[in-house]
Each structure stands twice: as C-alpha cells, then as structure tokens.
C-alpha cells in the first residue's frame, strides 16, 4: 500500500469560533486531537484555564501526530516538540526553534461557559 501525504491546506478558513469540549475534559500537560470544521487540531491545556490549539499535522513529516508531542518551554514561551523528529515549536506563534524553515499553524482559543472554543 502506498500513502501520499500532502501538506495541510486551509480547510474551512472562516474566522468562526467552534465549540470543542468542556475544559475539564482536557488533562493538564497533555495533548488531545479534535476534528474542527474538517481540520485536525491538537489541543494542549498548559495551566488551569490556558489552552493552546495548533495544527495536528507535523510540518516536517506531514503526519497527524502533534497532539502526542512533548510539552515544554523555551524561557517563558510554551512549546510543543514533535513526537517524530523532535522539532520544537512555539505554541503561541507556531515558530520552529530548531528549524526556521518550518512553522506550525496556530489557532486562537477561548473559554466560554466552561467550554473550549477554537477559531478557524
């Protein structure tokens, strides 16, 4: 079997907010994947009410694995390391600290009535 992977294309780029799940369903310091308006998104709860959302697709390998990455920090910047090749990305900007040619799509999040919402 041959699988051909393509880079993620902006699917459903609408600038709309999408309700994902209750905040308490996300574990601290752990990633979860969600399908949001046809796009795979990785969610990370960093603090009691701080949640980041990034593309689930690893920019280096095109595999949908970012929710299984390792959460960390570079100074005061929260980061996620790819579980495959360990590239380190800024969770706020998507900048790759280890390879400036790569970038991870990031999405705004907010907490509304106890639910996490993501803007695509």
TrEMBL record:
Residue span(s) of domain Rieske: 17-118
Record keywords: 2Fe-2S, Iron, Iron-sulfur, Metal-binding, Nitrate assimilation, Oxidoreductase
InterPro entries for this protein: NirD, Rieske-like_NirD, Rieske_2Fe-2S, Rieske_2Fe-2S_sf
Organism superkingdom: Bacteria
Record has Secreted as a keyword: no
Signal peptide range in chain numbering: none
Name of one Pfam family that matches: Rieske_2
Entries under PANTHER family matching the protein: NITRITE REDUCTASE (NADH) SMALL SUBUNIT (PTHR40562:SF1), PTHR40562
The name this protein goes by in its record: Nitrite reductase small subunit NirD
Organism whose genome encodes this protein: Paenarthrobacter nicotinovorans
């Amino acid at each position: 079997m041959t699988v051909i992977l393509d880079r993620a294309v902006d699917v459903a780029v609408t600038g709309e907010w999408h309700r994902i799940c209750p905040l308490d369903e996300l574990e601290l310091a752990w990633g979860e994947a969600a399908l949001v308006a046809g796009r795979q998104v990785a969610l990370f709860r960093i603090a009691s009410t701080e949640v980041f959302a990034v593309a689930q697709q690893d920019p280096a390998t095109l595999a949908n694995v970012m929710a299984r990455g390792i959460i960390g920090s570079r100074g005061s910047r929260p980061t996620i390391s790819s579980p495959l090749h360990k590239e380190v990305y800024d969770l706020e900007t998507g900048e790759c600290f280890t390879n400036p040619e790569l970038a991870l799509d990031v999405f705004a999040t907010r907490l509304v009535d106890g639910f996490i919402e993501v803007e695509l």
